[in-house]
Amino acid sequence: MSRKEKFAEIALTVVGLTSVAVLALIIFFIFKEGSPALAHVGLGRFVGGTRWSPGKGQFGILPMIVGSFFVTFGALLTGVPLGLGCALYLSEFAPRKTAAVLKPLVEILAGIPSVVFGFIGLTVIVPLIRDHLGGPGFSVLASAIVLGVMILPTMVSISYDALRAVPQVYREGMLAVGANQWQTVTSVVLPAARPGILAAGILSMGRAVGETMAVIMVAGNATIIPVSFLDPVRTLTSNIALEMGYATGLHRQALFATGIVLFVIIGALNILARAFIRSR
Amino acid sequence: MRDVAGEAGGAVKVEAKGFRLYYGEFQALKGLDAAFPDKSITAIIGPSGCGKSTFLRSINRMNDLIEGVRVAGEIVYGGKNIYDPSVDLTWLRSRIGMVFQRPVAFPLSIYDNVACAPRVQGITKKSELDQIVERSLKGVGLWDDVKDDLRKPAGGLSLGNQQKLCIARAISTNPDVILLDEPASALDPMATLRLEDLMWELRENYCLVIVTHNMQQASRASDYTMFMLDGEIVEMGHTRQVFTNPRDPRTERYVTGKLV
Q: pTM of this prediction?
């Protein structure tokens, strides 16, 4: 092996290990800062407690866990069908030229700062919900709609690539037995693209769980367990972002502990989703 | 020269009359006249780019999928020009099946790889589908090999058996005509011979048209041979005659390997 090659190999190894090291440091830091609160409050009372009121020393994050779950699930419910439908249209039905224009446009959505999505949600969607469906408007529903749009680029892009990767001969083979385009899509193209579409769903879910700014602006952020999709809601990420600016002592540690819980939930979701894909 | 009906096999099943096809400005098929009799195998041979696959794919209108394709003239099946606007594509393709160059085993179970075709025709009853799948797989001699593995993915079969599976799918809709587009080009010699045996069996009940690059295959496995060059039919006749006593000097040069 030449010296140059050896050098490149070492350099790349260092770079590769650096990113792993950064991740390890972040994890270490979160656990170091958060675990005292977990020890102090007790894991059961922290995760299972329904009251969050740091001033009174109450640190229960169950409302936020439930809130994150509802908001994420709601976002997937709105964003996944819409995104998959869009990808199907672009890949299977739209003329090539139309797809060449529309797909970059959808991807531009990913470049819009989340605060802009939040602002539109705040000025358009929240009032709409308040006026037509009742409640304060700041709600699970508003968050789900805003997040549903925000996950579109991920959902569309990755599903589209998965659909385009389905060999053309599958389509021809199905059309050759007399299937129309829709039958071809449902009986062969979608099953063939399923792993990629599931991956798109998982990445979208990650985006929805992690998104903070836009959700803070439209969710209402009340620390209650929502019982209706019109109720205000606070997510785990919102909890950290809203209070980190002024929290000290145990309160601050509790926010890091919230981060630990978030970290574990996202990790578990990823592992579950991957196992699910593999089992297919 | 081109009217070979009645000499062997049954009545004419498919007939092209002055059939022309254009890719945009380019004329790929220049007025073809040909008849394909029932219960016989017709091989279409010719160098790459001569239009033989294009012609084959015209017979069940697979070229409709390509943008910019125009056709003129007629291909008559069942007393009707198949390019007539009143022709139902689903019906046409159920009557004229197609088998491709590479086996198209869908990423589905063996069962669904066959059942998807009758389902398209609107058959949904489980018992009926079971029957069709069994009959079709028996028809290609695959039933005994796979009857216990019907739920397993078809991708696990050998390429030769995948191609048989595709033929089973093609015959599952009770077609009259089966078009085969270089069906053995992905197969090893043994699988190729088994496929040819199967073609002779299918010949009892169907009109088969096969496009092939392989001269030996054409001479072994067909009743009639059609030689195409530059979008035209140079010669069509009994396979033995075309190979041993060609009328056209270009045919002779091609079948003796002197013309590329």
A: 0.81
